[in-house]
Amino acid sequence: MDKKMEIILSMFDIRKLKFKCNYPKCENKPKREILIYEQTVRRGKKNLASLYLCEKHFDKINKLITKLKRDYPAIIIDTKVIKLK
Question: What is the 3-state secondary structure (H, E, C) of the chain?
Answer without folding.
Answer: CCHHHHHHHHHCCHHHCCCCCCCCCCCCCCCEEEEEEEEECCCEEEEEEEEEECCCCCCHHHHHHHHHHHHCCCCEEEEEEEECC
